[in-house]
User: Which sequence fits this backbone?
């Protein structure tokens, strides 16, 4: 998990830029909530092979630099509207590799945000490891 945490440290501004575009409510997170988000993502990445972690890190770097060609700025420097528009283009990109990469990052963002107790509660998610018995 240490390697995954280090990778998150280096790409924190990119994760946050993507997260606040995918889940606009993420812009309201405080330091402790971001830490919880990052811990969930780090645990998910730590369970993956080193090759996959490197691919995620490389794709995040690509996400950060690609908007330079269109907007003259990196992803983290774009305003929310342009960042969201750019990410929307990626999710429908002709390249299967780009689409898969974006949807993988998007999935991690959703897991990090809604995997927190407050995020789950915000959408009414009340799953329990004990199953339906817990709801009775």
Assistant:
């Amino acid at each position: 998990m240490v390697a995954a945490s280090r990778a998150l440290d280096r790409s924190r501004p990119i994760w946050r830029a993507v997260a606040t575009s995918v889940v606009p409510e993420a812009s309201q997170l405080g330091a402790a909530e971001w830490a919880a988000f990052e811990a969930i993502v780090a645990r998910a990445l730590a369970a993956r092979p080193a090759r996959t972690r490197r691919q995620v890190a490389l794709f995040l770097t690509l996400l950060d630099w690609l908007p330079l060609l269109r907007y003259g700025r990196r992803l983290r420097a774009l305003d929310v509207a342009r960042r969201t528009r750019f990410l929307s283009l990626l999710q429908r990109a002709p390249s299967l590799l780009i689409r898969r990469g974006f949807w993988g990052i998007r999935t991690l963002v959703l897991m990090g945000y809604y995997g927190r107790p407050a995020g789950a509660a915000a959408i009414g998610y009340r799953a329990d490891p004990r199953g339906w018995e817990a709801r009775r």
Q: What stands out?
A: Residues 2-135 form one domain. Helices lie at 2-22, 31-46, 50-65, 67-71, 80-91, 96-114, 117-122.
